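Quick one - inputs below.
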Amino acid sequence: MAGSKAFAQMGDVKSGDDGGMNYLSRLPRRIVTIYLPLGVFVFVLLFPFYWMAITAVKPNQELTDYKNYSPFWVVDPTLDHIKYLLFETSYPGWLWNTILVSLIATLLSLIASVFAAYAIERLRFQGAKQIGLAIFMAYLVPPSILFIPLAVMVFNLGLYDTRFALILTYPTFLIPFCTWLLMGYFRSIPYELEECALIDGATRWQILIKIVLPLAVPGLISAGIFAFTLSWNEFIYALTFIQSSEMKTVPVGVLTELVRSDVYEWGSLMAGALIGSLPVVILYSFFVEHYVSSMTGAVKE
Amino acid sequence: MASSVPASPPLLARLEQSRLGLGILFMLPAAVLLLVFLTYPLGLGVWLGFTDEKIGRPGIFIGLENYEYLIDDSVFWLAVFNTLLYTTVASGLKFGLGLWLALLLNENLPFKAFFRAVVLLPWVVPTVLSAIAFWWIYDAQFSILSWVLMQAGIIDTPINFLGDPNNARASVIAANVWRGIPFVAITLLAGLQTIPPSLYEAATLDGAGSWQRFRYVTFPLLTPIIAIVMTFSVLFTFTDFQLIYVLTRGGPVNATHLMATLSFQRGISGGNLGEGAAIAVAMIPFLLAAILFSYFGLQRRRWQQGGDN
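Output:
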């Protein structure tokens, strides 16, 4: 509704009587063409989170009683669902697994990526260009076509149902991404700095540690938190490679363990989703700029 | 660059010699991880597609039997159709709405940084967890959407969001679009911000209206980044698994089965690893098409940059 209105308005402007630049257009028009659609967008994009949060603190009798309680508000908020989640399920264990797996996989990928990106971008060894392209191609291989052969491998290696299965497979999508991103950052560091260091007798190792890495810190942060988020959100590998409850990650645990009977425990499900989302949201809120730059950087390069 | 150091040939020689060696050494950790856990499984997947491997029993080579079986399997073709439908509709909507949102965010707004941060949230939160929220929003009995529509007097009974084939398709597409819009919008916004304002001023002086400014200035300059963003978006949508697995598991009557979910169902839940791998391999031609699309998008950008200079 609001959309078609706004488009109609955009069409009207075609007459060209408004002189052009945005600051010249009048306020009522701006409200209809900009603020109203933007408001609808923000409302739709945020509503599921509100719904998640409000359901997580609703007592069960309010949850399904739309006649006596407005569904949009909670009269008597309760922490029962969260308490149940934290003390009567394996949820804390899943959180711990997710943190552990995400941190180690991210760290592993970052270290491997720093070396790879530096080698491709700065050592310029023979075939570096082709390897750079291969890395980009690896970035485009989706987990959905890898999980079956990986499951076979994980099983044969005796890693089935261990955290190692995840720690070793997550880098398959983290390394290509991080390397690609870091290549962009390394490219922006002037060659002259390295040349000076080489003349002063520094080794490649010293150059990497003392000159390139300190200058690429923003890139490292971007790649790191982005990789952490990707591992935190990963689902299909964790679903396939893990079976026992105590090894599961949050997304898998919430879906497979909290949905048991026919009567869904919506309150605790939503609480699980909310608490599982919070760590990445908090991380995100501190590093918004890094997120945006890593997302756009990965696409732009 | 090292050749500009004439003083010490040993150093130079050592550098030249070690460049390849050092390069290989530095590439080693990444290369080992990727070769073992990405390249090898990719090949193994293709091989498994030609075998009848089952969980707990190694398979033997059976040639094209898996594929012959799939060609006659109506569920497989339904999954292909669903995947194409899902990808086309969801990507189209994501592109349209994402571009619109990007244009809105590119305006002079108060709290611009705040809006941008908030808009990206659906993309940051784990898909499975937001999908669980959608599951509750789409509940057959207590859906908040049904309630609002009933209060407004538009419908009389709750909508059966996930129980009816077409409703289920629309519902999963809506959830996918919800999650994908932020990615498209924020990356396109970054592209929009690189367009110099002087071009708009020039166009306005020449009498271009806002539609013409969009059509003849914004859109052509944005085309390269649109090509790449949409390739990624198509790739992610085509291989989507999580949303479907949470919301419908492919049901009702396979109406929302995508190739990825069918591959999981047959390969892991059903234990027919060979057949599951064959379905996954069947996705590769489509993915290659998307990658080639991206490649030509990049080529075009290079050509444009060369033309400008």
